[in-house]
UniProtKB/TrEMBL annotation:
<keyword id="KW-0326">Glycosidase</keyword>
<keyword id="KW-0378">Hydrolase</keyword>
<dbReference type="InterPro" id="IPR013148">
    <property type="entry name" value="Glyco_hydro_32_N"/>
</dbReference>
<dbReference type="InterPro" id="IPR051214">
    <property type="entry name" value="GH32_Enzymes"/>
</dbReference>
<dbReference type="Pfam" id="PF00251">
    <property type="entry name" value="Glyco_hydro_32N"/>
</dbReference>
<dbReference type="InterPro" id="IPR023296">
    <property type="entry name" value="Glyco_hydro_beta-prop_sf"/>
</dbReference>
<comment type="similarity">
    <text>Belongs to the glycosyl hydrolase 32 family.</text>
</comment>
<feature type="domain" description="Glycosyl hydrolase family 32 N-terminal">
    <location>
        <begin position="20"/>
        <end position="225"/>
    </location>
</feature>
<protein>
    <recommendedName>
        <fullName>Glycosyl hydrolase family 32 N-terminal domain-containing protein</fullName>
    </recommendedName>
</protein>
């Protein structure tokens, strides 16, 4: 997908399939900013379409920050898309506000009849971290209040939302959990206890997704070296896109068994099944061999299960990973 844009950094992405075209939505920011770390606060949600997952054509951006005051009047970040019973597309996304200096993250929703024109539901968020189970920003434990990257999917008569979150207890560098909320109708959401436990070795587990690949359930998430616990870093572990087999899409998830799908050259991985049934990993090109930020979307990488029951990239690119 690196052929889509040359004048913008692009990173976290999510997908929808309308039966004719695949739609990629992704975070983007102008390279004229100079410093890639600034991209998070000058971000829009870009949109490209494809008929084969390889050749993409950019169309009009999908979302921008709202006018003040609103929960998302500073940034609109990573999300996911589902289609409801009435045929309306719903994009659940992360928002932050200028009043809170983008520190507190919340989840909101926008709707579309055609995946091209989106209307936000309003100025209020759908849900945020509940202090009964989740860490709230205190200025010391972590640089933000994590409640982002919503991944929404159905299970029976109920909808589930996975989010990047942090538990309220435990060592500050070891509180990363998969947050959870449920809804009967995609309108009203109730925050639930996390679907994983802190203490698995991660400060956060970004861009979570569950999928059923060739009949087996798997959770994927991403975490870099700097967000691993001190114990993992001192043991020489690195980051990237991670996966772990799970018994049920709705958890619980045993994160301690996670292994890396990629190294840190790729990040924010997403699994996508094409219409022929094959599974692919997309991510964004994160850093080059010298550690410099790249910021472009990858081409699809084939994935499958190995003899040890681990999800792997099957073209050999990451065979060097443990």
């Amino acid at each position: 997908m690196s052929n889509v844009l040359s004048d913008a950094w692009t990173w976290d992405m999510w997908f929808a399939d309308d039966g004719d075209r695949y739609h990629a939505f992704y975070l983007k920011a102008s390279r004229a900013l100079g410093d890639p770390d600034r991209r998070h606060f000058y971000v829009t949600v870009g949109h490209a379409v494809s008929q084969d997952l390889h050749t993409w054509h950019e169309v009009a951006d999908a979302l921008i920050a709202s006018d003040q005051p609103a929960f998302d009047d500073f940034t609109t970040w990573t999300g996911s898309i589902v289609k409801d019973a009435d045929g309306m597309w719903r994009m659940f996304y992360t928002g932050t506000s200028r009043a809170e200096k983008a520190i507190v993250q919340r989840v909101g929703v926008a709707t579309s009849a055609d995946l091209y024109t989106w209307t936000k539901a309003g100025t209020e968020a759908l849900c945020e971290a509940d202090p009964r189970w989740y860490e709230k920003f205190d200025g010391s434990s972590w640089p933000d209040e994590a409640w982002r990257d919503p991944w929404v999917f159905p299970d029976g008569d109920e909808w589930h939302m996975l989010v990047t979150a942090r538990a309220k207890d435990g060592n500050p560098d070891d509180r990363g959990v998969i947050g959870h909320a449920t809804s009967p109708d995609l309108e009203t959401w109730t925050v639930q206890p996390p679907l994983s436990q802190p203490g698995a070795g991660f400060g956060h587990l970004e861009v979570p997704q569950v999928a059923t690949v060739d009949g087996l359930h798997v959770l994927v998430f991403s975490s870099l070296h700097g967000e691993l616990t001190r114990t993992r870093r001192e043991a020489g572990e690195r980051g990237g896109v991670w996966s772990v087999p799970v018994d049920s899409p709705t958890g619980p998830y045993e994160i301690t068994g996670a292994t890396r799908l990629t190294d840190e050259s790729l990040y924010a991985g997403r699994l996508l099944q094409d219409r022929d049934g094959a599974w692919w990993l997309f991510a964004f090109n994160h850093v080059d061999g010298d550690g410099a930020f790249i910021g472009s979307l990858s081409d699809p990488l084939p994935v499958g299960w190995d003899a040890n029951g681990r999800l792997r990239v099957t073209d050999g690119r990451f065979d060097h990973l443990e």
